[in-house]
Design goal:
About 15% of the residues lie in helices and about 30% in strands. By secondary structure, it is an alpha+beta fold. The strands form twelve sheets. An eleven-stranded mixed β-sheet has the order 6-5-8-7-9-10-11-12-15-13-14, sandwiched between helices. Strands 16, 17, 18, 19, 20, 21, 22, 23 and 24 form a nine-stranded antiparallel β-sheet that branches. The protein has a seven-stranded mixed β-sheet with strand order 55-52-58-49-59-60-61. A hairpin with a 7-residue loop joins strand 5 (about 110-115) and strand 6. About 40% of the residues are buried. GO terms for molecular function: copper ion binding; dopamine beta-monooxygenase activity; lipase activity.
Amino acid sequence: MAGCGSVWWWWCVLVMCVVLTTATPNNPLATLVSRLFQDIPALKFTIFNSRQQQQQQQHSSTQRSGRNYGVLPRLCYGELGCLETGPDFLHQEYRSYNMEPNSRQQINVMFHVRSRQDPSGVLVRGTELSQVLTSTSFKPDRPTKIIIHGFLNGRDMPWLEVIGDEYLKVQDVNVVYVDWTDGSLAIYSQAVANTRVAGLEVAHFINWLQENTGLSPSTVHIIGHSLGSHVAGYAGERVIGLGRISGLDPAEPFFQFMPPAVRLDPSDANFVDVIHTDAGQFSLSGGYGLLQPVGHVDFYPNGGKQQTGCEQSPTPPLFALLSDSNILRGVEDSLGCNHMRAVTLFRDSITSTCPYLAFKCPSYSDFLKGACFRCDGDEAGCASMGEEANTWADNWQPNSVQQMYLSTGPPSSLCLYHYKLRVNVGPGEAGCGTRGSLNVNFITPQYTGKFTITNRIYEGDKPYTFTLEYKHDLGVSEGVVVTWDPHQGVDSPSCRINYNAALPITSLTLTNIEVTLYSRRRSGRSQGTPSEITICPPGNKRVAWVRSGESLRMYPCISTTINTSTPTGPLVLPHFANTIILINARNKSTESVRGMMLLLLVVCVLSGGWVEGTHLDDNHLHHHQPLDLSALPAYLPSTTTPTHQSVLDSDGAFTVFWTPDLQKNEVIWEIHARTLGWIGFGFSSNGNMAGSDFLTAWIEDGQLHLQDRYGTGETLPPLDDHADWRPLYAHENDTHTVLVVARDINTCDSQDYPLTNDSVRLMYAWSDTDPVDGNLYYHGPHRGSKYAFVLVPFYRQDLPQDADVWTISQSIKMPHLQETFYWCHVEKVPKWEKKHHYIGYEMIYGKNSRTNLHHVVVFECMNEGGSSLESTMEQYVGHPGYECYTPNMPDHFFLCERYLITWAIGSEGDMAPDIAGFPLGEKHGGATYFLFQSHYDNQHIEPDVTVEWDMNIYYTDKLRELDAGTMTLGHTLLFSLTVPPRSPSWQLTGHCSSACTSASIPPQGINVFIAFLHAHYAAKSLRLRHFRGSEELPPIAEDFNFAADFQQSRRLYKEVKLLPGDHLTVECNYDSRNRNNSTFAGWGARDEMCSSFLSYYPRIDMSLCQSSPNVQVINDNFRLSGFPKDMNVGDLYVFDPKMVDGRRYQEAVNALPWDSLDHQKINTRITQADQLIRCQYNYGQLVKLDTNMTRYPKTTQYVSPEDKTCSYIHGSSGQTEMNSYGQRTTQTNGLVLGNILLVVLVSLCTKDMSP
């Protein structure tokens, strides 16, 4: 402790402790404070004695207040053995005094023994070890994990139990927590002394088990944190043949640079591994861990000092003891983020498939330069940090020091994969090169790895190598998107920099270090995954020029040889009608004549004889015959970046990218499949083959085989009469087939599936082999489908570079025999002085989350007027949570009612537009506290279901122009939301009345940019209608193929303006033909809802506008006995009220003779009747309205514009008639003549014209 500032800082802490604990003497902190003041003489000696005074007394043994500060006499503890404190325990700089340990009874060490057979475990006192045999499930033939806490910790620290839980997930082990709480809750110098007695207790525990149960010490692994690391060392020196010790950031003060007898050292176990995470300069705010290597192998993540995510601490860590209402959480905070990170890293390594590979290196700076990525012949140059470090134990020399370095991320993505990127720059312009930043996005089936290589100079004809890190294993890259950002700088006198020049790239090579060096270890990857992939310019060009402001797409280098010479087979010409015309090229002497014929053909087309959209008979155009790859149109996939993407299968083997163009009535599809056999892709409303629209394709002998098919049932789809898939690009490499095709949105073909704004199933299949003699063999298990919005704008957009991420993680074990389970917990954002905007989120699917997680909703917690909720909500921060809407859930949670994020099954995430962001923080117009409501679903009541997920929430302090908000519309979640059984079509409605919008929306209106439609499994269509005055406007959103398994929000192509007085209606249509009982409102996935959530700007105070039918309307139409007069019809979440006759509502409704009732008539009466409106502010208070009743407005019904894509022939005077299937039934004379002329010209062009 150097400097007066440190002295007074300590006294400030003590004074505040006294003040804060005097009023609450039963607070756990009071006990700690009392102990601090009991040991004031020692504390005074530590803090106030000058370095000179300490040096004078370093070899003396002076008694102060019953404590000894020099060389201690021999101290014995009965069956535990004796301790001696000789000269090794004193050093004028690092350990200038020693204190006498407390007695064994005062330290009171206990052992908490757990196993899979007894997860709760049994607590055994160190003086009563016989209970291990009589009361616990301990078995000596299992490996034993002993976990020891550190300073100011105790048995109840959450991280202890979490590490034990992780071990029990993956191994059948004995887990033992060492509780020396009474020895650790003291001033630091006293706790240091007590570690030696705690070590004796642990050694006695192991030796006793060896003697009485036959336990082999070699199967014992001790994990200690902070002072607990040294407790483990003291235990190890008294246990012969101890298997392993893992030191998690061993404590520095009084141990750094001391002899091995004083601290943890390699002789304490057969293998000692250490993780250093807080090895900076010791101060009150950190630097609590050792810098000195003390094991067989010492790991230094991020250099062992500043850990990612710990950069900013709002208060010095020790202040957390005084400010946190939860003393244990406060203790963890007081130990510092960096110091606790070693625990987090080790815990994650137990179950992670990421290898945490570290490399032997002279220094961290050398590691960052990429100079140490090697494992050497005996693998002694690398090791896996954490649980698997012992797999390298045989490679260490007994007396060698192995310092290993690696990079790790924040808690949301701790383990990082290391990559080496080689950029080969081609010949450039004259000068010294070009300066700028290179952005490289590696595209894989599951992730897009985004890397930015900062400002530097690139000279021509040189390779550049960079070390990169990413939170995911990128696996097989299917291509990259490269952008170039030139920068200005200062030229040297002898060299001119081309600041505005494009960057020439000949190739990119990405090497996965973990796969290259770790292939024989557990990497969680399938065999055969390449460790290195080279990306080449598109079109097999030698150099790709990346220009400022442009995105260049590049693909894996093609290893197969494709004929690029003048083709002797069919040529493919894209034409005005987007139809493929095949003309046989016989010899060069006919080219001029053929050219003239083609010119005549073009004239004919332009004159209107052959019109856009016409399909010719296959007798004339052989759409299904193979095409030379070299004859495909000059389409380069790199010229545009697709706007949409979806990984269709769970293994990432089949990925599609697409770009819809509504003006051109087409969609460009880019298909990447991990196969060299045939692939299939298409559309279906429900995932069944009947009614589907499918293509099949494969590449064989340099030719593309492309077939258009349509589904008739669970058989091989027959060939379509007209081929509507237009090939643009195709190639194979060693692992993948890539196909780019175009197809019209509406092909006007009855055998095709018309694409709309509705949900659609993208279907896929593939085979490992090409067809034989043109016969497609069954694909086997390689098939499936996934919902998507084909035409709706994609949710994802590039994040601004200044965006930060807030990651929320949850792991929930569902209660046994419970089908639906809701879990609620509270999170908070920091108290930023500067305003921040939330701008989007992304869901990261984890274990069972795609099958058992139904939705996650984030609510803003708000008080009227925006006043602080700290006094009510702070107590729940850090608490794991409560089951929602049960008596255990705190009433304060009902202060959280405004939706911020609404994620539901099938969704990936969403982003706000550039103009708006959602404010964060109570003082900035947003919320500080947020309620996370998670809905878990276990339909088949499977046992032991654990669901895990992460949500990345993106925010920025670079504010958008306007604040955004959300509002909830639809049917109020009440009992009146009822769907009768066996009904093919039952509609429920929810209104937002003009009275509510008049009272809440400003005169200039609000702009809606996202609409989210939500219901459950009985729903088949949803629509959000928009009324203004006497006119109905176009619907804001609608889906006539609604799927409860796919609930992605809809980004609107054009923002919708809402004005005061507008009326909004949510209509939900249900099909309950497969249900024998009525379906009611409720939380379960088999219950129902009818809602729409709107995101808009600028933000207003109104957050909810819903309605429900009048109670009397429900009673009369369902012929019930009546509701109690004192029932509050405005209460939310009333699902099963009691009736006058004593029955419950749901029982009475299910008893109705529904098969003999007129469903349509009853439904019409209910939907057209008056409804009770609920118009609500952010903080739950109702908006005062002139009238609380509403119904459908009297307006002219909106009629969608006629789709003339298939109805009119452009360039002719006639109109094509369409039947109900969208087929042409008549053609004009001009069209017929045009087709005849086309056939004649094609015949002429293909005829042998040699003299």
